[in-house]
Each structure stands twice: as structure tokens, then as C-alpha cells.
Amino acid sequence: MLKTRYVVASIGLLIVIFVAVMFFLPNLQIDIANKGNTYTETVFDQSKVTKVDITVADDDLASILENPSEKEIVNADVTIDGETVKNVGFRTKGNLSLNSVVQMEDSDRYSWKIDFDHYQEDQDLHGLKKLALNNNYSDPTYTREYLSYTLMEKMGIATPGHSYMYVTINGKEWGLYLGVEAIEETFLDTNFSEGTGDLYYPDGTGSDLKWISDDIDDYTGINLKTNGNSDQSAMIKMLDVINNGGDLEEVLDVDEMLRYFAANTALVNLDHYQGMLKHNYYLYEENGIFSILPWDYNMSFGGFSGGGGGPAADGDKETEKGQEAANNRDVKAVDQREPTTVTEDSSPANNNDNNAKAKLPDGAPNMNGGAMMGDMSANFMDESTINFSITEPVMGTTLEDRPLLNALLSTEEYREKYYEYLNDIATDYFSEENMTAMTEKVTALITPYVEKDPTKFYTMDEYTKAISGEETLVDFATQRADSILAQLSGDLVVEAETQSSMGGAAPNMEKEKGAAMQPPNMGNDENGAPMQPPNMGDGENGVPMQPPNMKDGENGMAMQPPGMNRDMDSGGGINSSYSKETIILSSVLLLLLFGAIAFAHSFRRRGRKG
């Protein structure tokens, strides 16, 4: 018969195991959660082009195509890689790109949104609730958005799942799209420790995050997407701190935001918070700390005209303000290239009917300084785009009118970290070797699908020129990297960005004959002292600064900035939480513990009777 001391020792061991498991389980949260949500590997398989077949009633499809701007939701069945999900919501999506395609004569190549849970709340596809199908509008390379999300991932930013998908609707080929995970509850649950905080999609009044009042109702464009009953006090506190002063780390995941804005600045992505329209980004608050999330990158790599022209956002005359601010600056330029000429051959084509060119109706807004709206990417290699300022990284507005970014860059410590991340991007991700390897891999995958795409906006000649001609995204990245490094070292001075790079004046880039170029004017810090440019020579204690730890990833060149392990992310990243699976497992362990105690009690009673 077992001795009592062995039973007690066993019970003690079980207690130790129980406590240890309860302590370490939160750190295993993401692994447990992902077992139920496998869509990042199954739906977004980046090793292939996924086939997406959509079946919808003919009358419903006709209704959508007659009134695409209405974003009417209809019932559909969707088959993805042979797996069918019935009774899903299906509609058009987008804003600028949607309206642009509406204005085209012979094109129905809209972006689409699929809501797997629209009619059945518990329905999903391997955990995925919503899928966006983006039409690659204004991108002859088909790769701007894909490569931008890849950079965000490598910078440790929570990034939606994404991969290429070839779409058919009712058996008719609609073409090659980029499938992107919608940012909503499932995304939050997968990427954050709790995933239950307030999610915002700013677009409208207040989306510049400027202080209006302490009444959240005055910020009509903040757009709370989750937790409809939230008092949004955390948002008001964050707005107060970034506008009126306070400890940024009490309201922001500062390091995450610095990585994000460094990537966005390197990409010259101006259809965004840093541009005149102040949209296409998400804010997520968890336990009072805000993170910023990437969205909509088809006009990155300098593909958005940005500042001088186009409609003002929300009727607030922001465009005019940005224009006036630009005109009031002392703008000079040396070694300025001639602006790219946009010809009919470089404008987007629709291939439904004899490659008819897209046309804009009279009075349509011209976003491209004279070129058609659909070809805003034509001038992406202009010098003013390549040399987009890293010290004042906004276009069509002022840094002061973007208080979130301004608050971060006004603090010397944060500004220096932001420069370090820009240096990381310029020396690694934007290196010619890395960009060439990535673009060759992606284009080898998608080119056969581009060739057969019947609705593509560009001809095959235009696509081929965009991916292998004299001006490609590789050329943009390498020249942009040179500019970033020159600005960091002080060899290139960019005093101010002006109007749109698609027709505005170039930045001031002066160098006196025989004189060393001066570092950028950084303005004054919070104490009134002149801000200094980044020190790219010696680091702490006079030791030369070393490049960050670059872990091998895709093509052996993937970048992992220091401290970017999302499992150890602070203030809103993945850290510790108790999921449903954690609770179930803990309950089982607790039952086992109680069972062991009951066994020990029974054993002792039998021992006394003996």
C-alpha cells in the first residue's frame, strides 16, 4: 500500500504544476488562440494565388452594378479553394477607388467585401469573419499594397492577413485581386492580448486628431467600430495628451507608433493620416493605450498625388490650408528634374471592351495635377516624392495639424528612435538586393494571372514596364533609401515639403559651392532649445552605432527591428490574457487537482480503518 508521504508529495507536485501552468499560460495565449483561427495560413496562403468563386443571384448582381456607390449588401455563396461558405453578405467597397471606377466608362472592376457572418453570426471561414477583395486600383505593378503590408509585418506592426486571389462572379472572370483581412474583432483577437478594446476608423471631422473639446460627440469622424456602449473616455484622454501636453506613454504604444510612422514615411504613403485626407488608418485602444494599424496601401510608394489639388476633406478646407501653408514657405530647388509627362499611353486601361481608356466625366475631381484620376501613380519617381521629408513628413498640410505625429516627433528621444527605424528600413528592406528578390518572387507568382485578367486597369505592356522598365518599385525604393540616409546624415537638406509631388514645387535642397550641406532645421524642442539632427555616428558612451539585429526571413533579408517581438510587445501588443481556451484548460487542471485531493482524503480514511 502507498505510504501517506508519497500521496502528499504527489498532491504537492500537482499543485506546483497547476500554479506553473497558470503562470505561463497567458504567455502561450497567441498559440492557443491561433489553433481556432487558422485563416492566416489557410485563406491567406501567400505561396499561391487563391481561387475565389462568388455566386450571387443575377438580379442582385445587376442591382449592385447599376448602383455600386450604394454598397448594397446581397446574399451570396463563396467558394475559396474549393471550400464553400453559403449565405454570406457581399457588396462593393472603397471610397476614392470606388468612385473612380464608377466614373470609368466600361469597367465594373470594383473592390468587394465579403461578410461571412452577415446573415449567420457564428459563421466564419477558418476563423475569418470578413474578407476584402482589393482591385489594385491605380497600381500598374499589382504589388504596392502587398509589399507595404510586408514591410509593416517586418516592423512588428499588427498587420491584416493578405494574399493574391483570382476572382470569378457567377462563373465570369473578374480578375486578380489582393485579398485582405478586415480589421475587426477577429483581427483584434488574433493580434492582441485581449482584443476587446475600442477600435476606431477615423475618417472625417476629428480624424486629424486635433483637439476640439472634451465632448466625444464633437468628433463625428472618429468612428468607433467596436464596443458601441463605450464612453470613449480613453480617446478623449489621448486627444488631450497629444494636443495639450502630458505623458505620451500613458496613452500611446509609443514604440509601435514610431515604427509605423517610419514605415509610412519611407513608403511615401500620403493617402493617409500624413496627407490631406487624414484617413485610411485604424486606432485601437486596449487598457487605455492606443496602437495605430495599417490599412489601404494601393497608393503607397509615392502613388498618391497628396497635397495641392483635389477636394477638401469633410468640407473643412484642409486642402486650401495646406496649399496656403505651402505657398507661404520659402521654396527653392536645385538639380530639379523635369516633371514626368503623363500621356494617354500611361493612363489606365480597362480591358472589358477593346482596352477602352478610362474617362472622367466633366467636373470630376482631378487628383493628379493634370493627369487622369486613375493614374495617380504616374509621377511616383519625381524628385519631390523620392526626397519626401523625414523631418516634416506630411503633404498638403502641416505637422502641427497632425498632432499625433507632431507630439511624437517633438520629443527628442522618440524622434531619434524614429530615425533609427528609418535607417533600418533604408539599409535593409529598401536595399536593392532585398527589393529585387521580393518583387521577382511576387511577379513570378502573379504574372500568369495578370495576363489572363480580363478587367485589369492597365495593359500588359504597361504592367511589364512597371515591373521591369526604367522606373520600377525597386528603383523607387533604392533611391528613396539613398534620400533617407542622406537626410539622416545631413548631406541632404529638405527644408519643407510643398504641394503635391504630382505638379507642385520641389523641396528646398541647397548646397553652397564648396560648403558642407547643413543638417535639417529641426525647430525647437519643448524647452525651446534647437533640435539636433539624428546622430548617425557614435552611440551611447561614444561607441559607434551598430546596425539593428536583422533576423533572416523571406529571401534571407527579412528585417526584425530590435525589441519587436510581438509576444513581448508592451502597451497593447501581445502579452498576457485569459482566452476561452485558457479558462477551459485551467478548469480541467483544477478538477484534476480537486480529484487528487479527494483521492488523498479517501486514502487517508482507508488507512485509518486499516
Describe this structure in words.
46% of the residues are buried. The chain has 17 helices and ten strands. It is globular, with a radius of gyration of 27 Å. α1 packs antiparallel against α17 and α13 runs antiparallel to α16. About 27% of the residues have low confidence. The strands form two sheets. The protein has a seven-stranded mixed β-barrel with strand order 1-2-3-4-5-7-6. Strands 8-9-10 form a three-stranded antiparallel beta sheet. Among the domains are: 54 residues; 155 residues, no CATH class. The chain is of the alpha+beta class. It starts with a helix and ends with a helix.
Report the major sheet: 7 strands, mixed, barrel
Radius of gyration: 27 Å
What is the averaged pLDDT score?
Answer: 77
Q: DSSP strand (E) fraction?
A: 5-15%
Strand order across the largest sheet: 1-2-3-4-5-7-6
Order of helices and strands: HHHEHEEHEEHEEHEHHEEHHHHHHHH
Shape: globular
Q: Termini, distance in Å?
A: 11 Å
Number of strands: 10
Number of helices: 17
Main features:
610 residues; alpha+beta; seven-stranded mixed β-barrel; three-stranded antiparallel beta sheet; 17 helices; globular
In short:
By secondary structure, the protein is of the alpha+beta class.
